[in-house]
Structures are given as C-alpha cells and as structure tokens.
Give the backbone structure.
Amino acid sequence: MLNKVHLGILGLGTVGSGVVSILQQNAQDIQTRTEYEIIIKRVLVLNPKEPQKITGDFELTDKADDILLDPEIDIIIEVIGGIEPARSFILKALHNGKHVITANKDLLALHGQELLQVAKEEGKDLFFEASVAGGIPIIAAMKQSLAANRISQIIGIINGTTNYILTAMADQGRDYQEVLAEAQKLGYAEADPTSDVEGLDAARKLAILASIAFNSRITLSDVYVEGISKITRDDLLYAAELGSTIKLLAIGKHQDEGIEIRVHPAIIPKTHPLASVSGVFNAIYIVGNAIGETMFYGRGAGSLPTGSAVVSDLMQVIRNIQTKSSAAINCSCYLDLPIKTSSEFFTSFYIRLLVIDEPKVLATLALLFAEANISFASIIQKPRENKEAEIVLVTHPCREGQLQEALDSVRAYSKVLNIKNVIRFETDSQ
Amino acid sequence: MLNKVHLGILGLGTVGSGVVSILQQNAQDIQTRTEYEIIIKRVLVLNPKEPQKITGDFELTDKADDILLDPEIDIIIEVIGGIEPARSFILKALHNGKHVITANKDLLALHGQELLQVAKEEGKDLFFEASVAGGIPIIAAMKQSLAANRISQIIGIINGTTNYILTAMADQGRDYQEVLAEAQKLGYAEADPTSDVEGLDAARKLAILASIAFNSRITLSDVYVEGISKITRDDLLYAAELGSTIKLLAIGKHQDEGIEIRVHPAIIPKTHPLASVSGVFNAIYIVGNAIGETMFYGRGAGSLPTGSAVVSDLMQVIRNIQTKSSAAINCSCYLDLPIKTSSEFFTSFYIRLLVIDEPKVLATLALLFAEANISFASIIQKPRENKEAEIVLVTHPCREGQLQEALDSVRAYSKVLNIKNVIRFETDSQ
C-alpha cells in the first residue's frame, strides 16, 4: 500500500490556489515520483463560507490551529505572506513537529535566521525556493548544484514589474509614467507600486539570495536601494546609443574587502546575458570560481510558476521524510563578512547634465572630474534650445565616494544648469 | 573530530584535473559545507611515473583494482570517458559498495539503464550531472526543482563546437569550412570533428536529458540526427533576413502521440531565449506545465565547469552518506512512451532552391506544395547569374512526410536546378 502524507495549506490566494491546482493536475506523476499519496487535509482561508479560487477534496477552516495542531498533518505550506501572523504560524508548526514550505520573501528577508534556527533544532525541513523568483530554482541550485563553488557575483533581474516597465520604455520609446499606468491596468503593477518601482521587493529577494550565495547573513537593511522612478525615456535612448540598455539589477559581489549589496538601475551592454531578459521574466546571473558564468531564466511570479517551486520543495520534503534525512541543508551562513558602504562601491557612471552651451564648459567639467581623479570613457554632447546643451559623461570605474566629491564641484559650477541623472554601469562579465 | 571520506578518481585528464583543482582550491568551503574532510586517496592514470596535469597529496596508480577494491575508498569518480573499461569499472565499484560519480555521456547514453539499476540494487548513489552541459545543473534541476511539472519540451544548445561555428558564421558572415578550421586551431573543435559537427555528441546528451525530462527511456538510436556541415553562409544571411538565426538544437517534445526526439540545425527567431546563446556557451530551455518557460545557461565544457558539476555531485553523495539516504533518486523512467518517426515531425520549413528565372515557375512551385497540402508563410526571391533565381520558401507548419512528398515533385520539376538546403524552424515558444 502506498504511503500517505498529509498537508495543511495556510492561504488559498494566488500561490495557494496554484499549489492546489498543480497537486490536482499532476497528481499521478507526483505520486509516482514520490511514491507517496499526498492528501491536502485542511486549508486556512479568511472565510470558509465564501467561494474560493479553487475547490477540492479538502476542508476549509478559518482557525490556524486546526492545521498547526493537527497531529495527522505532516507538512505545512505557508502562502499567506507578510510578517505576522505568518511568522508565528511557522514557528508553531515547526514546534509541533511539522515540516514547512513557505513562499514568504518578506518574512525570510527579516526573520530567516530565526526560522532556520528553529527548524534545525526541531530537525524539520524549512524550504523556501518559491520566495525568490518563483519559477527559477535558484536556491536549490546554489545550495546543491553550485555547492563546489565560491560564488563571487550574483546579479539578478528579480522584479517583474520594473523589468516590464523598463522593457516597454526601451522597446517603444515611451515614458515612465505612461508605461507604469499601463502596467497597473494589466495587473503587472500594484495600485501602490512603491515597493516594486523603488526597489524594495528586489532588495528583499537579494538579501535572501546573497545570504545563500556568500554564506553570510545579509538582511534587508544591509542592501543599498534605489528604484527606477527617475529613469527617463532619454536615459534609455542614450543607453541604446552606448550599445546598452537599462535594467533594475539586484547585485551582490563578494570582494576581498567585503560584500557589495545593492539594488539600482544599471546600464548593461546589450551583449550581457541579462540584457535580453524582457518583460515580466526574471533571470539570475551567477559567477562562481569553478563554474564561471551561469544564468537561470524564467517566470518570477504567477500562480503556477510559484506553485511549481512550492510543490517541488514539497516533493523533496517527502523524499527526506522517506529517507529520514530531514533538515540536512538549512542555514548555511557560516561566515560573517563585512558589508561595504555605498561610498566604497566601485563602478563606471553615466552622468547626464544640462549645461550652458559655451566654449570651455566641457574642459572645465573634465577638470572638475580630474580633481577627483576621475576620467571619462566616452562623452555625448547634443545641442538643446536656448543655447543650452545636454552632455552625457561616461566615467571610467571609480569609487562612489570620488564621484560624490566630483558631483559636489559640478553642482557648484555656474554653467551647469541641472544634473539630470546619474546611473551606474554594470559591465564586467567576470 | 571531523568525519572523513575517501575518494578514488579514475582519470586525471581535463575533467579529472579540474576536480582535483576545485577540491584543493575550495577545500575549506567544501569542508565547512559538508562537515566532512575529503581525502583523495588514489588516482588512476596511464603512467604513474610520468608528470601529470596536477599534483597533490594522493597516490597515482595504473591498476584500477587498487581503487575499485580498496575498502577504505567510499566514492569513485569516473572521468576516463568512453564505453570500456569505464562501464566495467563503474559496475565493479558499485558491486564493491562504492558510490559513483561520472561525467561519461557516451556510457550513460548507451548503458544508463543498466548502471542505474545496479546502483539501485546496491543502494548506492550514481550521479552524473557532469555528463551533460558541464556547468549547467540541469539534471538536478529536472529531478528535483522542476519535479512538480510535466515537462512538454526540452530544447538545448548542448554542443559548444557547433555553436561556436554557427555564431562565428552568423556574426562575421564567414563560411563553414573556414570557421571550422579556426575552431580546430583554437581547440574548440577536434582534429576529427565528426561527432560534434554531425550532431552525435548533442544526440547522446539529448538521450540522457530527454529520458529524465519525460520519464521514459530514450537511447541514442532513438534520436534523429542531422549535423551542421551543410549550413552555408547564405543560409545564415537568409535567416537574418527572416529576423532569425540558425542553431544546432537538441529537441525533445512530449506530445499526445509520442515523443519527438531530434538533433538538427534549426532556424529560430532572434527573440527566442536560445537565439542569444553565443560561442561555446550552452543553454537548455524547458517548458513545464506549471513553471512555463525556463532556461539554464552556462559553460557546457571545460576542466573547471565540468569539475564543478562533479564536485557538487560529490557533496550531495556525502550528504546522503551522512543522512543514510543514498540511492533516493535514481532511475526515473517509469513510462514507456512511443517515439515518433521523422515523417511525423511537425514543423515549418525553410527551402532554398535554385530555379530557372522564368514566369510561372513560382506559381508551379506553389501548386506542387499545395498538392501536398503545404502553404507558404513567406517567400524571398533573388536574381542570380545566367537567368537563374534563388528562391527561399518558408512553409506553414506541416508533417515532414508531407514535405518529402512535395520535395519529390519539386525535384522532378525541370525548372528547379537544385534544392540547395532544407532547414526546420523552431518557432513556438510554449
């Protein structure tokens, strides 16, 4: 007779209904692959009397304890999101001997260490592949398939909303506000898009990814964050002129002096593997000292892709139950690496200025930058109305502290009317 | 005190020396991550007296039994390649209670089933991530991270030599023979390049990948194979004119009527995720019913990338030893799906013809194709010398049997001087 495993699911929203749908649709394959019959016993919803996104042979409840304290339930899937009560539910589940799978990036970015510690003490699995870039199995890849490597870089396009907006702006030469409004209409951006467009969502995911990549605990507050709301159509046109495009990148670099951990718009050459990642797709580019460059590409969100990550985690939890090897890979932060401040970041910069179109202005600018020890890799100058000119300066790589010094002098220079934008480059593969 | 695990390595060539190098260079991290001290005890080489690619604190031997029968050795890494004696060595190792990691695609494509069966009987792990697309952790991804999915398509660029050649031909408008010669000089192609350029290497890897993707045993002889040696500079120019490029694709599709399994040059739109995979890089594109489209990209060969796959497998074998859960995932071929013959393949075609440039020729061609129920999606016609014209016909999707029928009529048509090339399209994402 087939072994049975009993599930409790907390939440039946987008991800929860995806999980149920996959378990129903692929039931036969999943059963054959795991050699277990998976029974969804109870699902926590706000109002069990209301119609739900999906139906099935399971009980609905609005009392979490019906699930968390049910001795028959072996595994809990937490897909309600947010910090509380998700955190308390997961802790209670672990303390009551249940394995946990969660898709909750907010919670992990803040309380990952605590939760993994409790899972370890209780000898239970706590899996969270779905928390970052839903359809891309990046966490398992780093913990297992790339385990032989020292990872030096992880660079991701891990927010679909901003990538949709930047792709549309670049491809169609449209403005930020217009594309954002369209994305909201299509459901790719929230009514309040702040968390996405200002980079916070990507920062949370980066904190999780970089902790695993570099074996050192990184929390949300460690991440330098800048969003895309200041990127204009003109910036994208100049980027194209430079053979490049602009993406919101989540960047982690492990360098001799410490870790650079930052989310911001970045100009990347069109030849970079990340440059062709379009629309709502996500991708994560990793450099390891054995594997070299590698990239994982897929859907970062959505009911079924995220559900796929949850159910694949579930199948691994079941395998571990079967072989009595739960909790084999949990917290992997055995280092405590220093985090670099933004003044120590080392990149090239794109600086777009509006200046008075007079002789010597460019020469003076060059001098001001030279005083901060910064030289230019390329310069674009275009005439504008009223005897003004727009200048785009591309610097050679420098420390960000140097750049701020130079920008202070530039701001004080009377021929400069406006520093329209400053954008970092991400150029080096390897 | 730290647990110890003893290794024997069969072969110290490109991959073997990569494995040793990673174990030396990343020793501290690997030890912390596995909580085991890894001791390379003995390495099998042809001549232990000669200098080797890499040195270390291990014993060289030319007697396989010194390794296969050594009771202290827990894990064998087979990186000699070829069918025999590799097969016998692996079987002997398994029968003598050793876990095995191999990078041997030739062997697995032929004898995978036998070896996995023996591993299962002996309760040992037999891992082979390195056998396909070295630096891309695709096997673990399919067996674990995508396990919740029914995979409907797997399409790979999994031969670096041919991708290098086609990329150079496309980017530089050069001819096949010239680029092949250059690739041989640079070490990207063998002196006898047949196995790469005629698609055999990709077919072996595809047999392994598709067996795992579709849970049905597929061997080399099941794969329809066509190489790139007939692709010309002109074909690449026409492909570019069609907004596309040409890649040697390894294609597996699980359809209602059975499995399509084929390696051949294919025209793909420049917007396809695989189109921008350049040079010696490899990539594998997968469509699953939950995850949608996903792609894995990286180096497909080389000492360190392949070594990375071997050592990451090794770390998993060690974790399994530690948790006493070896042999948990082995052969996953629980289905026995029919394989479609090439006449049943269903694609669009590019057909390049040299014809006599007279009125009605195009109309007659259209009729000949219409008789086989094939219509055109687009047509390019260019004048050539001597009142000849070159015509490129792009068909709507049809069965390959229909196309062969039409081509028979075309061949018999006196105004057609030459069917210069016929190339399949791979257009549908999803």
